[in-house]
Amino acid sequence: GPAINTQAMERSPFLHPDMKTLYFSSAKEGGYGEFDVYVTRRLSDTCWTCWSEPENLGPTINTPFCDRSPVLHPDMKTLYFCSEGHGTLGDMDVFKSTRIYEDSWTDWTTPVNIGKEINSVDLDCWYRISTDGKKAYFSKTTDFDSKLFTTTIPTNMQPEPVVTIAG
Fold first, then answer.
1. pTM score, two decimals?
2. What is the pLDDT of residue 87?
3. Rounded CA separation 26/36 (Å)
4. Which end of the chain has fewer surrounding CB within 10 Å, N or C?
5. Taking the mean position of all CA atoms in its chain, how far away is CA 3?
């Protein structure tokens, strides 16, 4: 709908497992940089096209450069995203930040580069994480090709544990 799809370029949508929050990057005016990370919430459980006005995650997450590919872990606190800012090892790197307050989308801890186990001088992005927070799936893009990888996440970069119930 028009709250999300603007005349600007929107990229990297991520629908949270709660099916009520959508994260994406946009180059729309009024942001902090080339692309910024936004969140929007579904306004009705019965309407898939009814979303709130997108909220910019603020200057702690967004830089004057390109910030995109957001993923919020099911713990509803741990955000992983790609950025050209925040001190990368090369092109774009994956960063981790934690939401400080449950009722705020603009208060985050300072993003931390998740390290050389995943990040390199290449374009490291499109990061996804297992529900248990122990495995990561991501893409590395060089001048010649893109490849998908999986790795174990260093303990200090894992999200808080969540309980999964199946039945």
1. 0.90
2. 84
3. 5
4. C
5. 19
